[in-house]
Known about the structure:
This protein has three domains: 2-6 and 193-290, Cobalt-precorrin-4 Transmethylase, domain 1 (3-Layer(aba) Sandwich); 11-94 and 299-306, 3-Layer(aba) Sandwich (Rossmann fold); 96-179, 4-hydroxy-3-methylbut-2-enyl diphosphate reductase, catalytic domain (Cobalt-precorrin-4 Transmethylase, domain 1). The chain has helices spanning 11-27, 41-50, 76-84, 95-109, 123-129, 142-146, 166-179, 193-206, 221-232, 267-280, 302-306, and strands spanning 2-5, 31-34, 52-55, 66-69, 88-91, 113-117, 136-139, 156-160, 211-215, 236-240, 257-261, 287-290. Helix 4 (95-109) runs parallel beside helix 5 (123-129) and helix 8 runs parallel beside helix 9. The model has no long low-confidence stretch (mean pLDDT 94). By secondary structure, the protein is an alpha/beta fold. 40% of the residues lie in helices and 17% in strands. The protein has a five-stranded parallel sheet, sandwiched between helices. A four-stranded parallel sheet has the order 3-2-4-5. It has a three-stranded parallel sheet with strand order 7-6-8, with helices on both faces. It is built from eleven helices and twelve strands. The N and C termini lie far apart (43 Å).
Amino acid sequence: MVLASPRGFCAGVDRAITIVERALEIYGAPIYVQHEIVHNRHVVQRLRNDGAVFVENIDEIPEGAHVIYSAHGVAPAVRQRAKKRKLKVLDATCPLVTKVHGEAQRYAQQEHTIILIGHHSHVEVQGTVGEAPERIIVVGSVEEVAALKVENEHKVGYITQTTLSMDDTAEIIDALKKRYPNIKGPAKDDICYATQNRQNAVKALSKEVELVLVVGAQNSSNSVRLLEVAKTTGVKARRIESAAELKVEWLEGISNIGITAGASAPEDIVQGIVAELRKMSSSSQVRDLEIVREDVTFALPAVLRTA
Length: 307
């Protein structure tokens, strides 16, 4: 077995989960969380067992209670409603998402039409659109770029959903630049380092194995994309959420298995899958295929650091 490295939790996910855990320690249950803190049911259930209450509508939270915004970020309208309800806010929004929100605000102030490259239904995209709903247009394909209509072709800017890789966005960005030669882009890539690293790792992994297992949830954008990337290399690939989903028939004729995990998949789930595969196959050797070493960390909110 070969384990892709890096895999699993990124700095933004690690920070978000730690914020919920620390809040529960300091303030006690219940702690309310706007949306799933990260897209992984194992993580969500564990935190729920500890006293976290996950809600989709901020208005469901009792006045004056503690609320945590998920790693995906929220729209300004959500923040305004939280303030009106006198909620005590802890913000677990990934700093890379916060950066994109800031870019949307700047473009809006400059009266630009803002093209947001991303998945229309993704919660991160919905939060970013909320920064300037009258100015932001979401595009997810080159075909959608061709159909764009903007107010002023000389005042256009683009931003991207963080959980897409440079490979995912390159074609769309090229199409935008051809259509709008004066288009402005971010000063630095908004792409999440973890998304790109995990996709690069799964490409390298796919060259060494006959089957790739991607550990991650169905509603995890980066996990689904990891599966797609693996499949494009020609290797057999499957997405699973836990060892319980493994089937012995998947291993027929397979001598080498590769495993990776999306940015919201915990390492204990990965190790549970490794342990189960050891029982199901004759191979007991496990090695890491390290592409790059990640040392990124994001600070907790000051109130949790000093409490």
